[in-house]
C-alpha cells in the first residue's frame, strides 16, 4: 500500500508544505537519509503559539506536535520522498514550556504516534523531547526528523 493510500485510509490530508522562515532548506536528502528541518504546528493554516504549562494545555500541545508531524510528512512529499520512506530514524521535539512543565515526552507523542499510524513499525523511532523557553514565531512545539530513504 502506498503512503498516500494509507493517509487516505486514516482520513488524513497533508497540509501544503510550509516555506522556510529563515535561511535554510526544508529537506536535505544525502546518503540515504532525509534530514527534515524543524517544522512548526499549523492547524487550519494557523500557527499554534504559546507555552505549555502556561497558556497551552497538554492536549493542545499533543495536537500541535501531531501538526508538526503532518508538516514533516508534507515536506517529504514536496521533496518527492514520501513514498520512499524506509524508516523513521529519529524525531526531535522541542516544546515551548515553563520551567516547571515536565510532560514534554507526552507532548512529543503527538508526532511519534502519527509516524507509527502512517508507517507502522517503520515509524517507530528514537527521539528527544526537550523543553525550551522560546521557539520561532512563538510556536508551542517544533519537530525535526531524520528519515531513511530507499533507492
TrEMBL record:
<feature type="domain" description="Endoribonuclease L-PSP/chorismate mutase-like">
    <location>
        <begin position="4"/>
        <end position="140"/>
    </location>
</feature>
<dbReference type="Pfam" id="PF14588">
    <property type="entry name" value="YjgF_endoribonc"/>
</dbReference>
<dbReference type="InterPro" id="IPR013813">
    <property type="entry name" value="Endoribo_LPSP/chorism_mut-like"/>
</dbReference>
<protein>
    <submittedName>
        <fullName>Endoribonuclease</fullName>
    </submittedName>
</protein>
<dbReference type="InterPro" id="IPR035959">
    <property type="entry name" value="RutC-like_sf"/>
</dbReference>
Amino acid at each position: 500500500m502506498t503512503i498516500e493510500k494509507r493517509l487516505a485510509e486514516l482520513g488524513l490530508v497533508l497540509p501544503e508544505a510550509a516555506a522556510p522562515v529563515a535561511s535554510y532548506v526544508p529537506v536535505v536528502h544525502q546518503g540515504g537519509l532525509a534530514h527534515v528541518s524543524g517544522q512548526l504546528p499549523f492547524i487550519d493554516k494557523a500557527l499554534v503559539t504559546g507555552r505549555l504549562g502556561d497558556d497551552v494545555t497538554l492536549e493542545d500541545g499533543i495536537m500541535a506536535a501531531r501538526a508538526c508531524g503532518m508538516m514533516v510528512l508534507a515536506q517529504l512529499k514536496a521533496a518527492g520522498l514520501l513514498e520512499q520512506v524506509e524508516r523513521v530514524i529519529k524525531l526531535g521535539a522541542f516544546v515551548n514550556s515553563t520551567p516547571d512543565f515536565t510532560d514534554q515526552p507526552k507532548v512529543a507523542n503527538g508526532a511519534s504516534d502519527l509516524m507509527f499510524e502512517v508507517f507502522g513499525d517503520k515509524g517507530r523511532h528514537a527521539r528527544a523531547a526537550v523543553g525550551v523557553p522560546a521557539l520561532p514565531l512563538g510556536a508551542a512545539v517544533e519537530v525535526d526528523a531524520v528519515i531513511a530513504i530507499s533507492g
